[in-house]
Design brief:
The radius of gyration is 54 Å and the shape is rod-shaped. By secondary structure, the chain is of the alpha+beta class. It is 36% helix and 35% strand.
């Protein structure tokens, strides 16, 4: 019959060690090949961007493309409406104040001038006739006064003579009373003529003053109408360059319609559009600059427009110091608008990583250069070249700055 052979203890112990080793190997292999498969990624070191963390002066600014415009633009509007008869100057021409740029015609205005001139002439003739009539009345009153004075003198002499005769009973009382009545009649008549002369003189003065005032008003109206006729000649209001002229021969323009503009070339400004994100930080007086032909030129923000359109607002910057040679209206420059004074800070280069991390973490390259590990950071302000680092990085370290979109959710980049 069979008999159970008992195994020795040392054999069982060795078997247990083998099993334990096998399990440990499986665990190590799992950890090596499966446990970190979601946290580690091999990348080509030549296809990534690595930037240095450094300490430097940080200047917060924004870069915007601006357009050159004249510092002052004077618009040409039609003071009087009319038909474009003649264009004397073309766009881009240099003009002096008072130069005629174009001529308009207006038949209704010409008719109005003719009517005003006719009314003025009629008023002048009426005033002349009135003066002549008043002068004739004045002469008639003077002539009547002379006649009264003559009759008064005769009646006075007759009265005085008859008075003596009556006292001596040489004439009858009837004859004496008649001479007395004649004398009193002519005396009162003279007083009435004198009163009429004073009244007529006052009335003539008032009437002539009114006629003169009416004549003066009509003359002023005529001058104004003639001035309107002169306004049909559109003239340059200032010295400068004719920037635009929106007219065509034969075209009708109404009163107040925009015809063009004259650019004053004493100085220029740069107009730029800025994201509304900066509307609370962009103020009048901020400095700006741009480079042209290797030379830096300084600007200053002198006007901030409050209206926001399509997420942007408008600013004007004027030159401080010299102007670029040969500058022209319509040129564009890439300007840097400073938002504050420079300060010392820890900086890293801008890169695509920000879109993936929101600036909350970054891959930091190990000093060995073999891998880059994820690290939490905190960023502050930024400009078009650098981010300001507040926490998480030290000067001298290196970081991966390119986009992380293809890396997935890994904790370490193995550089090969």
């Amino acid at each position: 019959m069979d008999r159970v052979i008992e195994k020795k203890a040392w054999y069982l112990l060795r078997k247990n060690w083998y099993l334990a080793g096998a399990v440990l190997g499986v665990v190590v292999l799992y950890a090596a090949f499966l446990g970190e498969s979601g946290s580690r990624l091999r990348v080509d070191a030549e296809k990534i961007s690595i930037g240095d963390v450094k300490t430097d002066y940080f200047q917060e600014y924004i870069a915007r493309t601006g357009t050159v415009n004249p510092i002052t633009t004077v618009y040409l509007d039609a003071i009087e409406g009319g038909r474009v008869e003649e264009i004397l100057l073309e766009e881009g021409s240099m003009v002096k104040k008072g130069d005629v740029i174009l001529r308009l015609s207006n038949s209704e205005l010409n008719l109005q001038i003719l009517n005003s001139e006719a009314g003025f002439t009629e008023q002048v003739n009426r005033l002349r006739d009135t003066r002549l009539s008043m002068e004739q009345d004045r002469l008639n009153v003077r002539r009547s006064l002379l006649d009264i004075d003559l009759n008064l003198a005769k009646s006075k002499r007759a009265y005085q003579r008859n008075k003596i005769f009556f006292e001596k009973d040489l004439i009858s009382r009837e004859e004496f009373d008649e001479s007395n009545d004649n004398y009193n009649y002519y005396k009162k008549t003279r007083e009435l003529l004198l009163e009429r002369q004073r009244t007529d003189s006052l009335a003539r003065t008032i009437q002539i003053q009114r006629l003169d005032a009416n004549l003066k008003n009509m003359e002023n109206n005529l001058e104004m109408v003639r001035a309107k006729l002169q306004n049909l000649n559109v003239k340059a209001p200032v010295d400068g360059q004719l920037g635009s002229l929106n007219v065509e021969l034969g075209e009708s323009k109404s009163r107040g319609q925009r015809l063009g503009q004259v650019n004053v070339l004493d100085n220029y400004k740069i107009n730029a559009m800025v994201d509304e994100l900066y509307i609370a930080r962009l103020n009048k007086g901020l400095k700006a600059k741009f480079s042209f032909s290797g030379v830096d030129y300084n600007l200053v923000v002198y006007k901030v427009y409050p209206e926001v359109r399509s997420g942007q607002f408008e600013i004007d910057m004027k030159f401080v110091g010299e102007l670029p040679p040969g500058i022209r209206t319509g040129q564009t420059f890439r300007t840097k608008i400073e938002l504050g004074e420079p300060r010392e800070a820890v900086l890293i280069q801008r890169g695509g990583f920000f879109q993936s991390t929101g600036g909350q973490w970054i891959f930091v390259v190990d000093p060995s250069g073999e891998f880059a590990a994820k690290r939490a950071i905190k960023l502050g302000n930024q400009n078009p070249m650098y981010y300001e680092v507040l926490e998480g990085l030290k000067p001298g370290e290196r970081v991966v700055t390119n986009s992380y979109e293809s890396y997935g959710d890994v904790d370490k980049l193995v550089l090969k």
